[in-house]
Amino acid sequence: MTQTTLPASGCLVVGVDPGHCEAVLRGAARLAERLGARLVCVWVDPTAAVETGPDGAPVLVPVDPDAGGEGDGPEVSARVEREVAAAVGTSVAWDFVRSAGEVAHGLASVARDRDALMIAVGAHKPGLSGWRERLIGGSVAGHLAHLQERPVVILANPGAADDQ
């Protein structure tokens, strides 16, 4: 029996957050490497929305300009990108994308735009904070499974208990 090596193609989209779990990104990087795919790390900022700028290009704007939060400018995006770089390293080619709005929709949109092989997300947070998030908004993986046709991979998040 001969084994064939598939050519590198496509990408794997993974959702990231400020202060994300490094284990999820490391797992996504390993998966992308095994698939011969580029890793596209996407932070979907729920405190911002996408509008069309004067030149027709999409522009991220805060949902509530008077409220503080994650969408307070490029410094948060730069911090998240540094966190991604530290976790992923040079094991696989990767990109960082900032999107806005509802997380599942943002991930699905980037996956569609990039023709991703699949979307990876971290497992939900355990405990009361995770239960509260699922009760209010449902799980991102569940929303993705109903929103689009790409496979959704849920990566173990062994550090989640420490994130509470």
Your description of this structure?
The chain has a domain at 11-45 and 74-99 and 114-124 and 140-156: Rossmann fold. It has helices spanning 22-35, 74-88, 103-114, 127-137, 140-147; strands at 11-16, 38-45, 48-52, 58-62, 94-100, 118-122, 152-155. Residues 1-7, 127-137 and 160-164 have low confidence and may be disordered. By secondary structure, the protein is of the alpha/beta class. The strands form two sheets. The protein has a five-stranded parallel sheet, sandwiched between helices. It is built from five helices and seven strands.
List keywords for this structure.
globular; 164 residues; 24% strand; 5 helices; disordered N terminus; Rossmann fold; 5-stranded parallel beta sheet; 7 strands
Give a short overview.
By secondary structure, the chain is an alpha/beta fold. It contains five helices and seven strands; from the N terminus they run βαβββαβαβααβ.
Mind sketching the topology for me?
Layout: E1 11-16, H1 22-35, E2 38-45, E3 48-52, E4 58-62, H2 74-88, E5 94-100, H3 103-114, E6 118-122, H4 127-137, H5 140-147, E7 152-155
Parallel strand pairs: 1-2, 1-6, 2-5, 6-7
Antiparallel strand pairs: 3-4
Helix pairs in contact: 1-2, 3-5
CATH superfamily of the domain at 11-45 and 74-99 and 114-124 and 140-156: HUPs
**Major sheet characteristics:** 5 strands, parallel
What is the percent of helical residues? 25-40%
Report the top-level CATH class of the domain at 11-45 and 74-99 and 114-124 and 140-156.
Alpha Beta
Kindly, what is the distance between the CA atoms of the first and last residues, rounded to a whole number of angstroms?
Answer: 49 Å
Radius of gyration, rounded?
A: 16 Å
**Average pLDDT:** 77
CATH topology of the domain at 11-45 and 74-99 and 114-124 and 140-156: Rossmann fold
Question: What characteristic shape results from the CA principal axes?
Answer: globular
Q: Reading side by side through the largest sheet, how are the strands ordered?
A: 5-2-1-6-7
Strand content of the residues, in percent?
Answer: 15-25%
Query: How many helices does DSSP assign?
Result: 5
Order of helices and strands: EHEEEHEHEHHE
Structural class: alpha/beta
CATH architectural designation of the domain at 11-45 and 74-99 and 114-124 and 140-156: 3-Layer(aba) Sandwich
